[in-house]
Amino acid sequence: MLFTCRPVDTSFFDTAPMRFKNVVELDAPPARVFAIFDDEQSWPEWFRAIHKVEWTSNRPHGVGSTRTVSLSTATIYEHFFRWEQDRRCSFYLTAISMPLAHAFAEDYLLEELAPARTRFTYRVAIEPRLAVAMGGPISRMYFGSMFKSACKNLQSYVLKART
After folding, report:
1. 89-118: per-residue pLDDT in tens?
2. What does the pLDDT look like over 25-50, one tens digit per residue?
3. Which of 16, 101, 136, 163 is the most exposed place for a label (fewest CB within 10 A)?
4. Is the dihedral of CA 151, 148, 43, 15 positive or negative?
């Protein structure tokens, strides 16, 4: 069974009931980090909750691109509504296999700090369904920990990929 999610725009990152933001510095230029985001094979290597990523639209990817992501607990269907090559991309979920959210979006911003040094700002916005909302602080802690771990693992993955 699929649970549909409503489309959102960039304002959702400032208005959603649940919002998460993580910022890390990465030892790679923005283009290299963006290439990791575009590579479906890399995701399970650094985002541990992800088992498989499959682009369901043709390359080159951009606004309107879609993909399916298999997590340990659910399958999610994504639609990219912002794509600034080597700088930023954002997507919202169109559907999810578990009743977790009415709306869910992620934003990936890359800012060059110096040659081969990038600040990655990762924002997630969620309008939870009842089960997640009732989890209150526990739900927030679970999601927050997962997103923070992904950022830390990305730092390690970028370093490993450099050598």
Report:
1. 999 999 999 999 999 999 999 999 999 999
2. 999 999 999 999 999 999 999 999 99
3. 163
4. negative
Q: Which residue has the tokens 């060059």?
A: 112
The reply to whether the predicted model has a pTM over 0.70 is: yes
Radius of gyration of the chain (CA): 15
**pLDDT above 60: residue 137:** yes
Amino acid at position 163, single letter? T
Segment 39-48 long-range contacts (CB within 8 Å, at least 24 positions apart): 40/67, 42/157, 43/69, 45/157, 46/150, 46/153, 46/154, 46/156, 46/157, 47/150, 47/153, 47/154, 48/149, 48/150, 48/153
And the tokens for 108?
């990936």
| DSSP-derived 3-state class of residue 140 | helix
Greatest CA separation for the chain: 47
